[in-house]
Amino acid sequence: MSEEICDRTIFVAMNYNDRKFRPITNSENGEVSEEMIFHYMQVGDILTCEYEGESIRKGLLIGIVDNDGKIDIRYQQVNSKGQLTTGICISTPELLSDGKIRLHEKWRWTSGDKSEGESVLEEI
How far apart are CA 57 and CA 55, in angstroms? Predict the structure, then answer.
């Protein structure tokens, strides 16, 4: 895929545009739950997503996809307690035998206790 942005061409090996993911595991200190759906949109190397669920009233993420499909993400969300929380995440793809993608995530809160965690999301 290539797209002209600011007079430069960006080549991205993996395209997440219009793909949906569901969490299958998450660290205890995370707020994402298995019923949530992450619907990714991607233009060039820029990835965005809005999400919500039982423990998150509204969440937004933005990321940059590198040539290997790894995503460098920043996220912000309002949880069910009315707290605004923020964090960073590195999401590494694994291509499954059925052609779907599994994302292995290592994340850290940049608000609150600043703890770290891991999640796995699978394409649905």
Answer: 7
The type of residue at 52 is E
Structural domains of the chain, with CATH: 2-123 (2.40.128.30)
Tokens linked to 73: 């993400």
Read out DSSP for 51-71? E--SSEEEEEEEEEE-TTS-E
Number of Cα atoms under 13 Å in the Cβ half of residue 120: 6
User: Which of 58, 63, 66, 41 lies closest to 107, judged by CA?
Assistant: 63
Lookup result for tokens 């590494």: 92
- pLDDT tens digits along 14-42: 899 999 999 998 998 888 888 899 999 99
Q: What is the DSSP string of 72-99?
A: EEEEEEEETTS-EEEEEEEEEEEE-TTS
pTM of the model: 0.86
CA distance 71 to 27: 19
Q: What is the pLDDT of residue 93?
A: 96
